[in-house]
Design a protein that fits this description.
Blueprint: E1 3-10, E2 19-22, E3 27-32, H1 38-50, H2 56-60, E4 89-95, E5 101-107, H3 116-124, E6 126-129, H4 130-134, H5 148-155, E7 160-161, E8 164-165, H6 166-175, H7 188-224, E9 231-239, H8 243-247, H9 256-262, E10 264-272, E11 277-280, H10 283-286, H11 289-306, E12 315-319, H12 327-338, H13 347-350, E13 353-358, H14 361-369, E14 376-382, E15 392-395, H15 399-408, H16 412-431, H17 445-468, H18 474-477, H19 492-533, H20 544-565
Parallel strand pairs: 3-13, 3-14, 6-12, 12-13
Antiparallel strand pairs: 1-2, 1-4, 4-5, 7-8, 9-10, 10-11, 14-15
Helix pairs in contact: 7-11, 15-16, 15-20, 16-17, 16-19, 16-20, 17-19, 19-20
Length: 566
């Protein structure tokens, strides 16, 4: 299995001096204010992967010195605030299970990405940002949604057909094989054969849309509506390729509007109204933002499932794709992407190396609470928008990571304080569902523990009442302590009810033991360790016993967090 180990960017879009992201094969979460460079990271990764299917001049244009009077430089992505004689590049380093590292570079002078590894990484990966999702339902209220521009720009180029890029294959089929004219008219035989090829191409696109539609409907039903029939999607290739359209050389520069007027992938939605389904064509006019985003994500995931997935070396890059959703809807999508319930149908997400970028601090914290330091690295990008400076980038260490760093530096008292704060945070997260106002006033760790104990006991009592409530006579219930299965004084119904009650008792004991009691044991262990390490009498110099207590506390909190995540 391969992963990205390192990303280096210099003088590309918002980045100036070389910025190194040492991600060590982990997933990445980035928080940054607007203009801080998050999207520059997104486009740096997108550009280097896409370069694997481009010619050298097509890649070099991104690193040209921008000249307003020279149209050929207008696609340059080189940072305009640095000395234009300085080099500009994007580099990624991969590492495999044998610790073999390979570095790939795109710049004006070096391009080594036209190789099978990066080509496969490009075709297996996906990039989604809020603009791409918005494109699904952009348009006036009087128009039906046409997804052809979305597929052309964001989906066909990431799909493969017989190891070829779908979009390149479509363009090739539509341009290189057009029969030559005999005077002003194409002879009937060549035209018939070419129109048969066009028909075959249209059929292949129809089949692809059907596959994506099926995948999207399964996804939206299972993961957004808990298996209920609420929404159904339909994708139709409503305006197709034909000979007269292709003769207009629609793939030439400046012909995008012509293509988008004459090619159409129609999106229709049906809403369940009980006994009937209501068809909606102009979805942007009648569905809310959350519904539209769910539809867009389901189609993107449907396309993702339709592509060749023969490699484990792939990345999923998400840039503020949930910007328009409230926190509850965001949490639904976070559970899906992170596969929090460990669903078999979402296992394909597990193999992606994820890179999530957001300008929303609350969303950053939400993802952080649902991930761990062992598998994720966290960054903060900061930039003053009034200045033409490079973003300030730092690794955002957790309290545990800071504690480990301070432990190695002998800052024992600081370690103890950090561990107490981390323990308080963990317990606060445990209590948050029962006590939503917990953060509004100061509560000590001991008080939080007491509240949690009471909560556990209250839950156990409620479970007892719900599970064991029975109208059996006490004399019959007493039989639970005996070999009631062989008691001739009991009839079959009484034995069956006692058997059901006994099974509930055992199942619930196991559940309580595994969940609530185990939590209390973990928390008690941490409390005891923290009580000892926060005792000033144990701080005497570089005390080996105190150091050992700190190490034990760090490991205990790690174990508790892992246990709670599971």
């Amino acid at each position: 299995m391969k992963r990205l180990k390192e990303i280096k960017i210099k003088n590309f879009k918002a980045f100036q001096e070389e910025q190194t992201f040492s991600i060590d094969s982990k997933n990445v979460l980035v928080y940054g204010n607007n203009g801080a460079g998050k999207s520059s990271l997104f486009w740096a990764l997108y550009t280097i992967l896409q370069s694997s299917s481009k010619t050298i001049p097509e890649v070099q244009k991104y690193f040209e010195v921008f000249d307003e009077g020279n149209k050929s430089t207008h696609q340059s992505l080189k940072n305009v605030f640095v000395d234009q004689n300085e080099d500009s590049y994007v580099k990624i380093t991969s590492i495999d299970e044998d610790a073999v590292e390979t570095t790939y570079t795109i710049s004006h002078g070096t391009i080594n990405t036209a190789n099978p590894e990066i080509q496969e990484l490009n075709l297996a990966s996906d990039f989604i940002n809020y603009k791409l999702l918005h494109n699904f339902y952009r348009g006036s209220h009087k128009q039906e949604v046409n997804l052809w521009p979305v597929f052309e720009r964001d989906i066909f180029s990431l799909l493969t057909k017989d190891a070829k890029n779908w979009l390149n294959d479509i363009i090739k089929a539509d341009t290189l094989d057009v029969p030559k004219t005999n005077g002003r008219v194409v002879s009937r035989g060549p035209r018939d054969r070419y129109e048969a090829k066009i028909s075959d191409l249209n059929d292949k696109i129809d089949a692809l849309l059907q596959e994506i539609e099926t995948n999207a409907n399964v996804f939206i039903k299972e993961h957004f509506y808990k298996g209920d029939d609420v929404i159904k999607l339909k994708l139709t290739f409503a305006k197709k390729f034909n000979f007269d359209l292709i003769k207009k050389q629609i793939w030439e520069e400046g012909k995008a509007s012509l293509r988008h007027e004459n090619l159409k992938i129609k999106l229709e939605v049906e809403i369940n109204e009980g006994e009937n389904w209501k068809k909606i064509s102009r979805v942007q006019s009648f569905l809310n933002e959350a519904q539209l985003t769910r539809i867009a994500i389901s189609i993107r995931i449907g396309a993702l499932r339709s592509r060749v997935q023969s490699t484990d070396f792939k990345i999923l890059v998400l840039d503020d794709m949930l910007i328009s959703l409230d926190m509850s809807n965001r949490m639904d999508i976070v559970r899906i992407i992170l596969n929090k319930e460990n669903k078999e149908s979402l296992r394909y997400f597990d193999s992606f190396q994820k890179i999530i970028l957001t300008h929303d601090k609350a969303f950053f914290n939400l993802i952080r609470r649902n991930t761990d330091d062992e598998n994720w690295v966290y960054y903060k990008f900061l930039k003053d928008e009034s200045k033409n400076e490079a973003p300030k980038i730092k690794v955002d260490l957790s309290e545990l990571q800071k504690a480990q760093k301070e432990l190695s530096e002998g800052e024992f008292e600081a370690v103890g304080n950090r561990l107490r704060r981390e323990a308080e945070k963990v317990i606060t997260e445990l209590l948050r569902p029962q006590l939503p106002n917990l953060d509004k006033e100061f509560t000590s760790l001991s008080e939080k523990l007491n509240v949690y104990y009471k909560t556990v006991l209250a839950n156990e009592y409620k479970t007892f009442k719900d599970v064991y409530r029975s109208n059996l006579e006490p004399a019959i219930l007493e039989k639970l302590k005996t070999d009631f299965e062989n008691d001739n004084a009991l009839n079959l119904e009484q034995k069956g009810r006692l058997r059901t009650l006994r099974n509930k008792l055992v199942d619930n004991m196991l559940k309580v033991r595994k969940n609530e009691v185990s939590k209390l044991e973990h928390i008690n262990q941490i409390k005891e360790i923290l009580d000892r390490i926060m005792n000033p009498a144990s701080h005497g110099g570089d005390n080996p016993l105190y150091r050992a207590e700190l190490v034990a506390a760090i490991e205990s909190i790690k174990e508790l967090k892992t246990y709670l995540n599971e």
